[in-house]
Automatic annotation (TrEMBL):
Main location: cytoplasm
CDD domains per record: PheRS_alpha_core (cd00496)
Entry EC number(s): 6.1.1.20
Cofactor binding notes: Binds 2 magnesium ions per tetramer.
Pfam family for this entry, one: Phe_tRNA-synt_N
Cofactor dependency: Mg(2+)
Assembly, per entry: Tetramer of two alpha and two beta subunits.
UniProt gene name: pheS
Native organism: Collibacillus ludicampi
Enzyme class: ligase
GO molecular function: ATP binding; catalytic activity, acting on a protein; magnesium ion binding; phenylalanine-tRNA ligase activity; transferase activity; tRNA binding
Gene Ontology cellular component list: cytoplasm
Domain Aminoacyl-transfer RNA synthetases class-II family profile: 103-313
Record's protein name: Phenylalanine--tRNA ligase alpha subunit
Binding of Mg(2+), residues: 249
Length: 338
């Protein structure tokens, strides 16, 4: 029995088979117990001898069983570990990740350039007083130039700002005659326009203002040229054309040389070699005075440009409405990572 039990134990694999073996040899109805039960038929002399022998066999079998059980458990554990193993070299799952809107990206790029040129960022309200949007900019009521910017009025005195120029006045008032003053202000503006590929009733401007002693038109040109080259490339040039704004004198419209045609003419610049990008000029003495700066001592220059227009030129966007409809097929082209 011992031989048979031990050799059979060696062939058993797995928990189930092991348990069956225990029932068969060591269980209450097992073979060893059956032998012990049969002891009654033995003579009193034989009983202790056989009994001791049977107990020896039992403890041998139990020992062998415990050993085998340990082995099986260990194998089981190792198998589980193998099955559940994590491959740490597998690439991770990609998370959907947001990124800057092309308009915000353009604003940030423009701000970065002007910060590098010593400017600070300023802000002002979108819902503005008629006073700041027009009057303090030398556009009194009934001034014909008010028609240049068809206005959304909230009340007689309150409107949606038609340009970021009111921030010029608000910043000068805050600075209380302090110089130097160098700010740029990005922000939303509104005009009663019919929307099409190049017009939107709501768009974004970047305003610039510098006030100090001895500011000259050449400072304006130098700053704008530096901006144009950093924004569009070192090969670009700018050109100033005389113009009119009630809040600057003299005033200019500024063109950027067309990069894509190299001066020989193309659709972007309509074969002129130049594209208009902004309005600018020397701050009108009356505007300085109304905002608390003595025009006999201080002078300034200001400029304002449409940010969508800059973004369209820089990134080759042909419809301004693309910036507002939030079509991800458009927006995701401005990912700067992959
Ligand atoms: N505010 C003007 C516009 O919206 C642009 C401008 C700004 C012109 C500052 C001159 C100086 O068209």
């Amino acid at each position: 029995l011992r031989q048979r039990a031990l050799s059979e134990l060696a062939t058993r694999e797995g928990k189930e088979a092991l348990n069956e073996w225990r029932v068969q040899f060591l269980g209450k109805k097992g073979e060893l117990t059956a032998i012990l039960r049969g002891m009654g038929q033995l003579s009193p002399e034989e009983r202790p001898v056989i009994g001791q022998f049977v107990n020896e066999v039992r403890s041998q079998l139990e020992e062998a069983f415990a050993e085998k059980e340990n082995l099986v458990k260990k194998e089981e554990r190792e198998r589980k570990l193998r099955e559940q193993a994590v491959d740490v070299t597998l690439p991770g799952r990609k998370l959907p990740f947001g990124h800057e809107h092309p308009l915000m990206r353009t604003i940030r790029e423009m701000e970065d350039i002007f910060i590098g040129l010593g400017f600070e960022i300023a802000e002002g309200p979108v819902v503005e007083l008629d006073y700041y949007n027009f009057e303090a900019l030398n556009l009194p009521k009934n001034h014909p130039a008010r028609d240049m910017q068809d206005t959304f009025y909230v009340t007689d005195e309150i409107l949606l700002r038609t340009h970021t120029s009111p921030v010029q006045v608000r910043t000068m008032e805050k600075k209380k005659g302090d110089v130097p003053l160098r700010i740029v202000c990005p922000g939303r503006v509104f005009r009663r326009d019919d929307d099409d590929a190049t017009h939107s009733h709501e768009f974004t401007q970047l305003e610039g203002l510098v006030v100090d002693r001895n500011i000259r038109m050449s400072d304006l040109k130098g700053i704008l040229l530096a901006f144009a080259k950093q924004m569009f490339g070192q090969d670009r040039e700018i050109r100033l054309r005389p113009s009119y704004f009630p809040f600057t004198e003299p005033s200019a419209e500024v063109d950027l040389s067309c990069g894509s045609c190299g001066g020989s003419g193309c659709r972007v610049c309509k074969h002129t070699g130049w594209i208009e990008i902004l309005g600018a000029g020397m701050v009108h003495p009356r505007v300085l005075e109304m905002a608390g700066y003595d025009p006999e001592i201080y002078r300034g220059f200001a400029f304002g440009m449409g940010i969508e227009r800059i973004a369209m030129m820089k990134y080759g966007v042909d419809d301004i409405r693309q910036f507002y409809v939030n079509d991800v097929r458009f927006i995701h082209q401005f990912k700067t990572w992959s």
